[in-house]
Structures are given as structure tokens and as C-alpha cells.
Amino acid sequence: MLLKKQTEVYALGQHIAMSAHKARRVIDQIRGRSYEETLMILELMPYRACYPIFKLVYSAAANASYILGSNEANLIISKAEVDEGTTVKKLKPRARGRSYPIKRPTCHITIEVTDVSLPKYVPRTFLDWKENSLERLKKPKSKKKYTTVTYHTMYSNGGVWDKK
Predict the structure, then answer these.
(1) What's 111's domain CATH number?
(2) Which tens digit of pLDDT belongs to each residue from 122-136?
């Protein structure tokens, strides 16, 4: 039997002040590429969305080196997606007492990097299986909750006549 090993790490940027459509234009260019190639592409592209995406890719690589202990040369962008966030709505005063709505869209960007040098599955040994089964046996099946019932009468609290 094989155990699935974690080889993916992600970075999430929320409420980034730009349209999801404009961010997707850049994200589609970097999906599936290596980490170093992605950084070069993002530095040279002329779009405003490149800088927050660059920071997220850099953060995802830092997460991978910290969590997985992997090298940046072995990382690829396995998943990159953009979701629409909340829209900030304001009213701008216009001529003759009228108002004009201003909508500032935001987006949520998720960058997931995968280390290609790490194996996805590791073989499960008999000792691992035995330790896991013993741990499952030690855990209690259900927790008993005891409740204490207290009775209050008007005489035990000093009665109706007790004014504090």
C-alpha cells in the first residue's frame, strides 16, 4: 500500500485591487512553467497585475522551501487560479445633485507550486501500519459528558426578602 506524500504548497492573495479578468491574462501565461522561468516572465511583462502575482509566486516558493525543504530549481507552477472577490462600491457626486456609482473590483489569486524532485507516493511499511492501528485502538470511542444539576430555591438564596 502506498501513502500519498505532500509535494504541493500554495500561497494565497486575497482582496487584490484589480479585476479578475486582468489578472487571468497574466496567470494564463505562467501556468505549468518552472519557477525561474515564471519570475523572468513576470519581470518583463508590462501589465500591472504582474507585481502582486510575482510576490505570490515568490511567497509560494518560500513556503515550499520551508515546508518541504525543496530547492527553487525543482519547482513548477502546478496550479494558478483567479477568483473574483468583493466589489468595493462608492458614490461619486456629479452635477445637479446626482451621484455616479464607482465599482472597484477585487480578486483572490491562488498559486500552487509542486516539487518535481520529490516522489508523490511513498511505500507504506508494516511498522507504520501497526503503529497507526495501535493509536486508533488507544483513542476513546466516545466522550462521556457529566452534567451537574443544581437546585435553587428562594429559601437557599436568602428568599424574596433579602435585599442586597
Answers:
(1) 3.90.470.10
(2) 666 655 555 565 565
Q: Does residue 34 lie in a domain region? A: yes
E strands, the chain, in order: 2-4, 8-16, 75-93, 99-115, 121-123
pTM for the model stands at 0.70
Phi, psi values for residue 143, rounded to 5°? -100, 130
Evaluate whether residue 53 is within a structural domain. yes
For residues 6 and 118, give the distance between their C-alpha atoms in angstroms, rounded to a whole number. Answer: 9
Type of residue numbered 31 = R
**Contact indicator for 52, 33 with CB cutoff of 8 Å:** no
Cα–Cα distance between 93 and 134 in angstroms, integer?
Answer: 70
| 138 belongs to a structural domain | no
pLDDT tier at 164 (50, 70, 90 boundaries)? Answer: very low
The per-type count for the chain, helices as H runs and strands as E runs, is: 4, 5
pLDDT at 12 over 90: yes
> Over the stretch 48-84, which tens digit does the pLDDT of each residue have?
999 999 999 999 999 999 988 889 999 999 999 999 9
Count CB atoms within 10 A of the CB of residue 42: 22
The count of structural domains within the chain is 1
Residue 134 lies in a domain: no
Residues spanned by the domain of 100: 2-122
